Amino acid sequence: MITFNKPHLCGDELNYIRQAVLGGGISGNGDFTKKCQKSLQEKYGFKKVLLTTSCTDALEMCAMLCDISAGDEVIMPSYTFVSTALAFVRQGAKIVFADSRSDQPDIDADAIEPLITARTKVIVAVHYAGVACDMDKILDIAKRHKLLVVEDAAQAIDSYYKGRPLGSIGDLATFSFHETKNITSGEGGMVVINNEHFMKRAEILWEKGTNRAQFYRGEVNKYGWMDTGSSFLPSDITAAFLYAQLKSIDDVQARRKALWNKYYTTLKPLEKSACFALPVIPDYATLNAHIFYMVCGSLEERTALIAYLKSNGVQAVYHYLSLHKSPFYKHLYDGEELPCCDRYADCLVRLPLFYDLTFGEIEHVCNCVRTFYAMHILQSTISAAIINSEIK
Ligand SMILES: *Cc1c(COP(=O)(O)O)cnc(C)c1O
To answer: Most CB within 10 Å of its CB: which of 77, 165, 277, 302?
Structure first.
């Protein structure tokens, strides 16, 4: 079976964990945490990085930092992971969902402005599959309406918008190091603070509402309860694992991009006749090879394709269900239909993509896709011919 994902070990994970454990201190904000934060700040020009135990945690920190309270409105795509919305809902926000672009699952920047009201506080840009949202348009809208911008860059490590690293553009940004992401620590994440205004408070929320981080730096001579917050910081064992992965990021990215390109060039000649759509990377965005997906012609076609791939030893999976139609939120949603979002929910399928996947395995997956569509086209031609002959 070619599984959808298989976590990759870069080599030094166990060495660093050993170092952390033998070093004596393995709670949060230790040496490996500091090393990870520093290397991420330097490589991507992030103003301040704090590791968290997940991207969900990082999003919760963002919702607190943005001072979201009951009735405040947050605009985001409906085609995203639950956590993007949940973090703000916990603070009492009303979520206002915007549709995706027709050529690509990212939020349609042109759909945002009509959704703004006097209660709108934040726009969340989710960079789906690591492909940048149209950030200039979003920043311009935010500036004119005095809104904050949070980038949910969970999937977007090492990806760029017009040369700027994703996660360095919004007031705040979040990343995930979950096992399914390009760089991982099993569970893990980080929050990026680009807006100076949030720097000090972020550290306090991170450390259970205390100014302990300042105390450790010797900036205050005792620490105490300053604000709300939680225990958002990961153990230094998690950070040690992550540091090994971060050191290998260039190698990981090169490998994933090579695999992604192999899929793309193999499937591209089939795209038109088979009627599925391949990913679109706008001129302003780069590829970070987080996901390789296809958009099928219908839900039935996707269900049949996934079943066919499974019967040939390939695990392909669909992705998000529209959040505005979810059991939890559908009663609260009072907005427009979101047809592009629904189309991705019904028709998008992700093919296996992980570091240790081989080019031969990709050939096999693509051959299965080719055979499936050849059968599919033949079947529709036959049924059309039968209908025609019945009419005559
Ligand atoms: C993975 C993901 C998350 C959640 O990340 P965790 O680290 O599992 O909390 C949030 N948003 C998006 C877009 C994701 O892909």
So the answer is: 77
